[in-house]
Amino acid sequence: MRTLTAGLFIAVDGVVENPQDWHFPYYNDEMGTAVDAQLGAADTLLLGRKTYDSFAGAWPEREAGGGEDAYFAAKLGDARKIVVSHQDLTFTWRNSEVLKGDLIEAVTALKQESGGPIGISGSVSVVRQLLAARLIDELHLLVHPIAVRTGERLFDAAEASLPLTLLRCATFTTGVIHAVYGPGEPGTGGYDEAKKHLAQGD
């Protein structure tokens, strides 16, 4: 089965909206390596329409420009790009197509196909739905040491909690924390169990 990973830039207060307004001061080689390992390694990209429009409006030009980011831009261009949208779209970026059918059913089938990793960048509404369906194998959160204090947050209000398992974690020199989560199970126990671990006085 193919692995599905999702990567997001996120502020310490949970904001994921408009990262271009606050995350660039924290972008260094460590973050570049992390992004390349998650998104650049994918041979298929699953993107929401807004994220796709942003990518398609920037990366082809960067590839053509031949600058420092042209190599990464070419990898994104060569990847198969599946766009989650209910609208008819006209594509100018190569290897792009619209997701057909129900999101959960289509992604479940996509993971059963032969091929390499499937990567998601941004696309918050898509990530939420796939997390709830337990279809994301690795959620890469690049937690920035800033409280943006306005904008959409990754986890919106819902009746059910969403348990996760921390798979690995690293701290960058900028203070960014790269935390990778997988699906988890609800915890058990209450205060009676927890109080056993409180510090005991003499």
UniProtKB/TrEMBL annotation:
GO terms for biological process, alphabetical: riboflavin biosynthetic process
Residue span(s) of domain Bacterial bifunctional deaminase-reductase C-terminal: 3-177
A GO MF term: 5-amino-6-(5-phosphoribosylamino)uracil reductase activity
Protein origin, superkingdom: Bacteria
A Pfam family this chain is assigned to: RibD_C
Protein name (Swiss-Prot/TrEMBL): Dihydrofolate reductase family protein
Source species: Nocardia pulmonis
